[in-house]
Amino acid sequence: MIVDKSFKIAEVDPRIYGSFVEHLGRAVYGGIYESSHPASDSNGFRKDVKQLIQELNVPIIRYPGGNFVSGYNWEDGVGPLNDRPKRLDLAWRTVEPNEVGTNEFTRWAREIGSDVMMAVNLGTRGVDAARNLLEYCNHPGGSYWSDLRKRHGYELPHGIKTWCLGNEMDGPWQIGQKTPQEYGRLAYETAKAMRLVDPSIELVSCGSSSTGMPSFPEWEAITLDHTYEVADFVSLHQYYGNRDNDTANFLARSMDMEHFIRTVSATCDYVKAKKRSKKTMYLSFDEWNVWYHSNEADTKIDPWTVGPPQLEDVYNFEDALLVGSMLITMLRHADRVKMACLAQLVNVIAPIMTENGGRAWKQTIFYPYLHASRYGRGVSLLPIVDSPKYDAQDYTDVPYLDSAVVYREDVEEITIFAVNRHLEEALELECDIRGFENYRVVEHIVLENEELKAVNTADEEKVKPHSGGGAECRDGFVHARLSKASWNVIRLKKA
Length: 495
Description:
InterPro entries: Alpha-L-AF_C, ASD1_cat, GH, Glyco_hydro_b. The chain is an alpha/beta fold. It contains 11 helices and 23 strands. Helix 10 (about 315-330) runs parallel beside helix 11 (about 365-375). It starts with 7 loop residues before the first strand and ends with a strand.
């Protein structure tokens, strides 16, 4: 590998380390919020969960969905608790008690140090509900909805900057599914009205629900033809699984993510050229993760209950390796990917798990997310890599070494993130950093395990990192042994 400070991709927007909380399963009720829990604060939010989230330093959290938002009446979740209705959530076939709504969530997010990425309902609703919600949240006062917020006990506006114009509107599972022309027109008119209420906001236009959609990427081309000049971002969603138990193929799936990013970027640039625009459309990868373990269990859940255990994937070690590669992929595209949300944050396909009334613990995927959020802030540099490769079932020329590099000039730090995809052999890494004088290795963090299927539970943390990696710097070269199937974080500082 060759790393040089001149090989700049872009400044990393910290919001690529965002996450997502949807009113789904136990993400809210039994996750971040459980009023009867002994560790809950005076507002009903779990302090043990809050502490784990703060450890991750999550800069932005998407809310309240997700599929949920396409049937959500935001007015149900504000005002006195005793007056709030219980509603059927058709997206996940549960009962929504509306104990947590816009105000409670926004206050909680502020307490943990996160901004809110608010989604508006463009499924069953539209322009009117969206502009009213924005007025309620952001207008200082002197109008119906802003004064209603004040009567609800929130004198100051929430000042929510980032707003999603609906969710996965091309999906046949979505309440109020739209054609690209229908969505494009509705999103444009909604954006126009919202910017009249608050011109300072930034907006995310819905992209395809995944690369597997028959209309991808035509959906982006058509919808952006409407929303290009009013939106700041287009969304990307993608999940991966290992249903065939082919780990070599599974660990190569980040190459699909790379292709996804390149394709959406190219489509955005096509619309830019078509419109003769000077504006660059950025990407919000606001749903991404591994998701497949819980699919069968979810078919056995009784409908119409509050906070059932839905989408509760128990992640293993190989899942953590792919999550690491997905983070690496976004860092290598820091010039276009400016926001991203690991979906989701607690219990629902999440890095944090809880017991109702009991403990909270870290899943295997917690650690690469933690390391990237902690050490991946700065300038993303393009590493020039010469790595041996392999062929998998769905991918060819897969590099065994997957890597990204982040440089923080202000504190004179370099961080090398590296995944060794080889399931049998270590990689001997030689990294040329002669463009950085007098740097030394201060830490080599390794996440490794002999069992690819090892998991963490409330009782035992089988998968956790250690700082026993042996990387060292000699004569301008970093030398490191990357153990088989491992996630590595090599940190260097100027001596």
